[in-house]
Amino acid sequence: MRTRRTAAAIAAFATAAVLVAGCSDSGGKGSEEKPDEGGKGGKVSGPKLTIAMVTHSGKGDAFWDIVQKGAQAAADKDNVEFLYASDDQAQQQAQHVQSYIDKKVDGIIVTLAKPEAMKDVLAKAKAAGIPVVTINSGGQFSKEYGALNHIGQDESVAGEAVGAELGKTNRKKALCVIHEQGNVSLEDRCAGVKKAFGGATENINVPGTDMPQTQSQIAAKLQATDDIDAIVTLNAGIAEAAIKAKADSGSKAEVSTFDLNEAVTEQMKNKAITFAVDQQPYLQGYLAVDGLWLYKTNLNVIGGGQQVLTGPAIVTEKDVPQLEKLAKNGTR
Amino acid sequence: MSTATVDERLLRTSVWKKLLSRPELGAVMGAVAVFVFFSFAADSFLRMSSLSTVLYAASTLGIMAVPVALLMIGGEFDLSAGVLVTSSALASSMFSYQMTANVWVGVFVSLLVTLGIGIFNGFMLTRTQLPSFIVTLGTFLMLTGLNLGLTKLISGTVQTKSIADMEGFSSAQTVFASEISIGGVNFKITILWWLALVALATWILLRTRWGNWIFAVGGNGDAARAVGVPVTKTRIGLYMAVAFGAWISGQHLLFSFARVQSGEGVGNELIYIVAAVIGGCLITGGYGSAIGSAFGALIFGMVSKGIVFAEWNADWYKFFLGAMLLLATLLNHWVRKRAEATK
């Protein structure tokens, strides 16, 4: 009986807290602007196609969310039914592709983060006469595996762009933060930074699923090596931890990051992030679906079968006014 | 034998021997060894600002290691503890944002939700009699899915919206994620939370009836029940304690960053258990201490940051981390063996 009374007391207290404390006059959902329905043009007529996308994304990755939004926008316009599956285990990813082949979809979009695992299943897609477009990473394997074309960003090139940008502001020593030890594309980015940057570059591994630990890890590094004057993070979430770590350690280092989102545009406005490298994930999804539609209806191939690069685009504080709202809607 | 007339339970033991028989002794020695080692291995380790970083890292683990240690003394595990921290932060953030409510309302709703999950764990365990490994593994997977699914459903993306501009944020930040300046060096408030929890848990374990129940339940549940210990209530209470720790950690996470990534926290449950075990808890239950878990967390914090201060090659980080933890635990084990031998 006592526990029940306690529970009732807690519930009553919580209700009272809601009533007494009431509402917030600032922020929250109440201050949200209605997103305008821009970008949704008229639909094309013609037969309804089915296009499937299979990526190597882990669950809950903000980046792939934007890719899907781009793909869905193109699908809506092109009268396409868009299907999506993902798995960070290569074998599972290949099985998803196989099931879409069995389903006889009209086109397949895949990522080649683990190229060897996708080779066989892409040959099967070709044998079944289903056109394939590859996106994001692994562009050098695209043609070999029989894809129409590749739409994405070369990670090394993107890293080099960051290195060159750091050189422009006379940085001396950069810290590249790897949030997933052993991830090839992250290592490629840091290697690219090192290659194009005039100064020294050091890497550090942080536990990317634990923000406080990531923050203290970067702070420790900044305290140990106090001549670091540039921090490069490889996704938007880690950039937040780097900004905190910089304050904790009293470092003067500039923070710049890969990927763009609402938080990053805010931090650029606050001058906490100097620049971001955008690889336009929305465009990767959009062009892949649109490209397959063009191929199916008119036998066009975007880029004439060559790799189409969607990045790296360097975004700075100057670009924030235009991008802010788009980032808030989750399309940039 | 002249002493044969005195019952051995009434024998006076020296303070030294009493100290030697404490579960946390090995962990204290391990912590001292790690501290001395990095004082020599890393130039920047001994600066006050560096120690503040180490203490911060130790405190965010330690806050969870304390209730996890109590739970392990009570003979159970909680594999959902890592993601529960994220769930707690998400609940608080999304409730405040969606209801446009003062963030303190979200903080209290989150407390209820988190404690509710703790009760669920305890209830499932005691009702089904299944091993806690299985029950909490189920909760772990379900929470991982819920964190992502609900966040995406409610916020539209995989991270929550910023609540930094909402009412109550700054006062909540003061409580959960502020800094205290001592002699020009800033220390995080999580260190205070950590110390307070260690003190509270130690008092409960050593000075209250509940402490006796916890040891009894972990030592032998059936025997404890037979002598009238409320076994079911004790177990559910322990899971609620873990949930309470997750609530504090979750609010710290939220008020440090103002937004929460839904995929965080996976894997931390094992680190909490590691801290408790280094601190002298037995995996079989019935033995351990809250102070020990604090030293376990401190060892983990010192090693993980010490490697960075020592500027060892980053590619080998995990190897060094594992090796140092193993060495610290071996020392701990060795000290305890010696202590038992001298009894």
From TrEMBL, chain A:
Periplasmic binding protein domain: residues covered: 51-293
Similarity section: Belongs to the bacterial solute-binding protein 2 family.
Pfam families reported in the protein's UniProt record: Peripla_BP_4 (PF13407)
Keyword Signal: yes
Annotated localization: Cell envelope
GO (cellular component) term, any one: outer membrane-bounded periplasmic space
Keywords: Signal, Sugar transport, Transport
InterPro entries cross-referenced by the UniProt entry: Bact_Solute-Bind_Prot2, Peripla_BP_I, SBP_2_dom
UniProt superkingdom: Bacteria
Presence of keyword Signal: yes
Comp. bias intervals (Basic and acidic residues): 30-40
Leader sequence residues: 1-21
Gene Ontology molecular function, alphabetical: carbohydrate binding
Name used for this protein in its record: Simple sugar transport system substrate-binding protein
Organism: Streptomyces indicus
Predominant subcellular localization, coarse grouping: other
Region of interest called Disordered, as start-end residue ranges on this chain: 25-45
UniProtKB/TrEMBL annotation, chain B:
Protein's job: Part of the binding-protein-dependent transport system for D-xylose. Probably responsible for the translocation of the substrate across the membrane.
GO cellular component, one term: plasma membrane
Subcellular location: Cell membrane
Protein name in UniProt: Xylose transport system permease protein XylH
Keyword match Cell wall biogenesis/degradation: no
Pfam families assigned: BPD_transp_2 (PF02653)
Major localisation: membrane
Assigned keywords, A-Z: Cell inner membrane, Cell membrane, Membrane, Sugar transport, Transmembrane, Transmembrane helix, Transport
Membrane-spanning intervals of the chain: 25-42, 54-73, 104-124, 130-150, 189-206, 236-258, 270-296, 316-335
Native source species: Streptomyces indicus
GO molecular function annotations of the record: transmembrane transporter activity
Entry membrane topology: Multi-pass membrane protein
Protein origin, superkingdom: Bacteria
